[in-house]
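Thought: the user wants the 3D structure for the chain below. I'll pass the sequence to the structure tool as-is, report back what it returns, then summarize two notable features.
Action: structure_tool
Action Input:
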Amino acid sequence: MDIFKNIVRIKPTTFFVFAALFFELVFNLVTPPLQVPDEINHFYRAYQIADGNFLPVRTKDRLGGYMPICFNEFVVPFNNAATNIKYTINKNEIIKSFDIKFNSEKVEFKDFPSTTTYSFISYLPQVSALYILKQFKCSVATMYYGGRLFSFVFWLLVMYAVISIVPIYNWLFTLIILLPMNLYLANAFSADGMNNCLTFLFIALALKHMFSASDITLRDLIIFLIILSLLALAKFVYVSFIVLLFLIPARKFPSQAFRFASIGVILTVALILVSIWSGIYLKNYIKISEYNQNYIYNVGLSPCSDYVAQKAYIINHGFYFFKVVYHSVFDHPQTFLKGYIGAFGQADIPFPNGVYLLAYLFIVIVAITDYNGIVINTTQKIIIFLAAISAFVLILLSIHLMWDCVGEGVVDLVQGRYLIPVFPLLFILFNNNRFRLNFSPLFIVIPLIICLNFYAAKIIADRYFKETFNERTEFYCDAEQVNNQNYFITSNPSVNLEIGGVISYKATFSGQNSLLLNNAAPFGFTYKIKNLKKGDLLEVEVWKKGVEGYLALSGKLKNNEEFFLANKTPLITLKNGWSKMLYVFTMTKECNGNEFNFFVWNPTSENVYFDDLKFSLKKFNTNYLN
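Observation:
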């Protein structure tokens, strides 16, 4: 009984702090860097701001900014994990990433148009960390994890304040704030963390003044003005939350005229800021059709979006957008319903469906039964619903304008993380004085949060660190040994490589020999891949000396169409002129088990040297791409 009484005394804020700190540590251990959607581009944008450049850099047909070349060595391996669902990471790779030194002297232009819409407000915690740590020349990984830590601490402080301030549903707010997706985003380079902090704080303050006995003061109005202004610069769609100020009874204002005037001033300032920042962004906007096609891969843009044409289509087609809203809600609601509870990585690490059903069931139970003597009347519920629905519609509109094909008729990318600020308003609508629990909601909230987050940590860890291949072929070739048939001998006794080019001793990365290629002998290190199938994962690493030089794969697909893929992007270039190339590729085409050729390639007259080739081919039991 004493234990039971002690548990009942646990305050929502106390549980929140301990649970948030513990699972922040757990998520840090199981989540490799840069695994939140668009996190690489958010990382680039945050660094750009920390470096003193508040506006993106636009060339004629590219949009982004200049990043230190040292970022490549840190970013590329983790980008491979983010873009290839079966690519796993060795924990030693994360540890070794702390050896990558920060050097701001050598820079190159990086494309990140998908995050140039975000102002400095969206990254205040991360920018603060990057600015401080870059002064001390910390490693790139230290800078990244420092940004993670600052982001989490800011989120922790704000959400603690939210739970302390809100006059109703303290345990409900504790529950939804500690949902796995919210914690996952709080521990990342993402603009969502700041959006969630500002919106939750605005909601909590509106509810506080709705039920408090004291009148509204000028200080209170200034706080609302500051928060909404920050939201206008961070994510303009949530400016619609100003509707919540009408929850504050008119009697708390000096007069009705003062009430409308003050709310009008707050809205006007927010809209002016929205207009200013939107104008800056649209000035830099580049349609996908006009973007430099050499840099279009993986820049985070929809292949058929056109803001100007989409806007004109909506205006000229009457009730078209109402249909968009309807289809976006009812055609595939599982996308945003799952993402709100937790769909990790690039939304490719979901819970089983039953977990989502149980999570929503318990959230609704808490929302219905968590009664503390305060009842929200019908008029107040209408205001809360209007705030939620207006924000939701604006979210759909912004996505449809920037991401969807013109006239597509539905928004396909309504991710649950966008609705983290909206759903609390919907749960509040369950408020009533009829249904009550005979025990504290903490007996639901605490077990649910612990189970959900431990399960989330498990599936995240399995995704990134647990190998699931059923067959692997790997080898290493240092260009040192040749057999009697004039093939390179590799570390795998069953694999020998066609030399193709010239064995040279003039430039070597290690040992005494390397492979020299030019247009007289353009192909080398050739490996014939038998029975290549859709879903097979290739991981290749090689050192090269020279500007040109590709890693290449060729063969015939199932329909006899020729397939050719080549990549020459270096991961890092050393002072001695040698560059490390790392390429990861998932075969997404049906190739009917045909034979493919992997090789290094140099079609130019320039001499390019290759050395120390590492190759891995993994096959999987399930056709996971379907």
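Final Answer: Structure generated. The chain has two domains: 11-464, 471-619. The mean pLDDT is 92.
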